[in-house]
Amino acid sequence: MWIKHIRPWLMSTALFCGCLLSSPSWAVDVSNAYLKVMNSVVVLKTIVHEQQMSSQGITEKKSSELGSGVIIDPKGLVLTASHVVNLAESIEVTFKTGETTSAKVISSSYLADVALIQLDQMPDSVSISSLADSDQLKVGQEAFVIGAPYGLEHTLSVGNISGRRVYDDLISMEFLQTDAAINTGNSGGPMYNTDGELVGIVSHIRSSSGGNEGVGFVASINMIKDLLLNRPPSWIGADIIPIKGELARALNVPHSQGLLVQRVAKGSPAERLGLKPGILPVEIPGAADIMIGGDVIIQVGPHPIFVSKDGFLNVRDYLSKQDGPLQLTVWRGGEWVTLYGEN
User: Does the keyword Protein biosynthesis apply (predicted)?
Assistant: First the structure.
């Protein structure tokens, strides 16, 4: 009989403990942090022109892209992802209040997928996000993302720091992995720690479906400080890919290494230089699709292109210190061409 009496008590206790363990009460409440930072988050709408070869010849296509960004300075500086704005002909910025203004790119790191843009006007209602020290983040800490997934402005998603991914290729890069929901429209948006400090900028996801599968990557704010905020602004307005070896030979480039121009932004320094974009998409086994038919940059000023960390640093240092006209040597249609323009 004692066992019969004790069983309901055991069951009640088990249910009570189970509720405690499964309850979300342990999760950090980020509502106050969200209120603190939401007016610093903006939505970006860009217009991009592309050229492609078709049966009708070279045609131009105009497309509109959606992304997010975050205000980090009272002078109107906004951080976002490079792939959102790097080729933009125009950028429209929408604030939480519904007010809009235009902006222009002033600095971009295409390889690290981060960019800095300058607002033409700053409304009184906005706030400024403070920058964290992302080196202090630990795997397992909670963080939250604000953005415009599928156009749903100022949407909050919460997750964890799932890992750190450090790459030491042409430049040193660090991305924070997160399981916070990230979808189309989140690109360039901020990720915050639970105190509402900016820890990174949303870059990309890994997905077999095209939507969020819990594997997102965010450019760390300390990397952004090093690449953009602590260096002279630099933006050329072109997408380029490094080529060498067999690929360079396949494209009949009379140099072992170079930078193949993919696309060029209208009104950008690259367009003013006269850089020609690729016009014909091709598929290369074992590599990403590329555009061919454009210029291959062989030399920047006195520095030949070498697809290595030292080679990239030489070119970057030259560009950051160059005061006079910029000189590029390109391989175009079987000929060497020298281009001159403003840096």
Answer: no
Q: Which of 208, 229, 250 is the last residue of a domain?
A: 229
Catalytic residue among 68, 82, 134, 187: 187
Choosing from 40, 68, 82, 83, which is the catalytic residue? Answer: 83
Regarding whether 254 and 305 lie in a shared domain, the answer is yes
Rounded to whole angstroms, the Cα distance separating 71 from 101 reads 13
pTM reported for the whole predicted model: 0.86
- Residue range 150-181, pLDDT digits in tens: 999 999 999 999 999 999 988 999 999 999 99
DSSP E strands in 169-235: the ranges are: 172-178, 190-193, 198-205, 216-220
What's the domain range around 307?
238-341
Residue whose pair of structure tokens reads 């696309």 in the numeric block: 263
Active site residue 187: yes
Of 200, 229, 258, the domain-final residue: 229
CA distance 320 to 325: 13
- Asked if 228 and 114 count as a contact pair (C-beta separation under 8 A), the reply is yes
